[in-house]
Amino acid sequence: MLDVRSCTTLSEAAGILSGDRQAVLIGGGTLVMRDVNEGRLTEGTLLRVTDPAFRRIEAGGGRIELGAGVTMGMILANRELAFLHPAARAIGGPAVRNMASVGGNLFAPAPYGDFTVALLALDAQVVLQAGFGSGRATPLEEFLAARERSGSALVTSVQFSRPANPGDFHFRKISRVKPKGISVLSIAAHLPLAGGRVAQARVAYGAMAPTPIRARGVERALEGKSLDAAAIAAAKTGALEGCRPATDAIASEWYRREVLPVHLGRLLAGEPR
Ligand SMILES: Cc1cc2nc3c(=O)[nH]c(=O)nc-3n(C[C@H](O)[C@H](O)[C@H](O)COP(=O)(O)OP(=O)(O)OC[C@H]3O[C@@H](n4cnc5c(N)ncnc54)[C@H](O)[C@@H]3O)c2cc1C
């Protein structure tokens, strides 16, 4: 049997999650409720969090914090987060976006997780709370590597720095069905320029591995270079480093490997997809 329990504070929810292996947090529930409706989740406690901090957006300054319960719809309604709108708009259709949370997206299995790809390119930190203690910030890349083992912790928020120039941040989702199709792949890139050269590039992919990953071969190829044809060609050569895409109902592994460098090259050259 399934119980539903509402928690008025984040620490109450974190305490229950860490003490009860059968407790499952519901963010927006777009994935959890599918498991319930399709009979994969039949036992335990579903936890709702009503603490306002869970859905708080702090985006007024250089450092941004999004409560884990913030939805894609809330991001799209916030002008200070305009640079993230292409990533938030890439998640499902309007009904899904009104429920789908930032925290839930961190756990969404590939080929889902498009918003997390954007967060990875922004060098985000994940704030986790286990038990009744206070939160601890972990780099998103580390969190994703250990995601399957972090089952009992509550993600309370994500934090990242606002790009100094929003035009340096790019996001693309490649899907066969427009506008609501699931990703063949997604790419996010933060490419700050110093004196016309890329400085501290961060590039991330979705659906190219079991979790979103950094494109380290691309980052290395671009570092210190101007974004000209030679640098883009070098980036495309290193594009598949670390990739382990799956074959699924959306695309084959072969297809994902074939099209990734093409779309990466277009993104870097500022061409339409
Ligand atoms: C029709 C449809 C289309 C979709 N399209 C896309 C798409 O285009 N791109 C995409 O990326 N995703 C897509 N999704 C998947 C999903 O909607 C999103 O990934 C969404 O962001 C998941 O968030 P949620 O709040 O609904 O997660 P939930 O279903 O609430 O939770 C998912 C998992 O994360 C855990 N969890 C959630 N929040 C926390 C937290 N704060 N701390 C600890 N654990 C937590 C839950 O316990 C659960 O295991 C789609 C889903 C559907 C049904």
Give an overview of the whole structure.
The protein has 273 residues and is α+β, with helices and mostly antiparallel strands. It has three domains: 2-49, no CATH class; 52-161, 2-Layer Sandwich (Uridine Diphospho-n-acetylenolpyruvylglucosamine Reductase, domain 3), CATH 3.30.465; 166-269, CO dehydrogenase flavoprotein, C-terminal domain (Enolase-like, domain 1), CATH 3.30.390.50. Helices cover 30% and strands 24% of the residues. The chain has helices at 10-19, 32-37, 72-76, 85-89, 94-97, 102-107, 114-121, 140-145, 216-222, 229-237, 253-269, and strands at 2-7, 23-25, 44-49, 57-58, 63-67, 125-129, 136-139, 154-161, 169-175, 183-190, 193-194, 197-198, 202-206, 213-214. A five-stranded antiparallel beta sheet has the order 4-5-8-6-7. Helix 9 (216-222) runs antiparallel to helix 10 and helix 10 runs antiparallel to helix 11 (253-269). The model has no long low-confidence stretch (mean pLDDT 95). The chain binds flavin-adenine dinucleotide. Residues 24-32, 34, 68, 90-92, 96, 99-101, 103-105, 107-108, 112-115, 154-155, 182 line the site of flavin-adenine dinucleotide. The site of flavin-adenine dinucleotide has 30 residues, from strand 2, helix 2, helix 6, helix 7 and strand 8.
